[in-house]
Amino acid sequence: MLSSMLKEHQSRQTAKKESQETKRKEACQAASELTQHLVDHLNVGVAQAYLNQKRLDAEAKQLHASAAAFGKHTQQWLQLVEQFSGALKELGDVENWAKTIEGDVRTITTALEIVYKDAQENSAASAGTSS
User: Fold this and answer.
1) What is the DSSP string of 70-126?
2) I need a surface site. Which of 2, 24, 46, 87 has the fewest CB within 10 A?
3) What is the per-residue pLDDT across 93-106, written as a single tens digit (0 to 9) for each?
């Protein structure tokens, strides 16, 4: 009787150990699967963040290139405006020069008219005294 109880106890102990070992293996497998799913989930987030960063870098480069092109165009426009301003100043200088020349020509014309009238009066006066 005692030996049969001992055998029965040992067989239950063995069954419990096998059951515990099976449950331990299942728990390890479940933990491994959970870990793998968590890592996959995190990797998806990391991959998405990496793609977003890559896209942001590309857009930043494009923005930098656009800003550089805009700066170049702005410089060209400034040069054109400066050239236009210089041309306007030259036109103003030419207009001023033309007005000065016009005033000088009027003065000369007036002087010539006065001299011509005096010459006409002198020649008329000399013609009247000689007759």
Assistant:
1) HHHHHHHHHHHHHHHHHHHHHHHHHHHHHHHHHHHHHHHHHHHHHHHHHHHHHHHHH
2) 2
3) 888 888 999 999 99
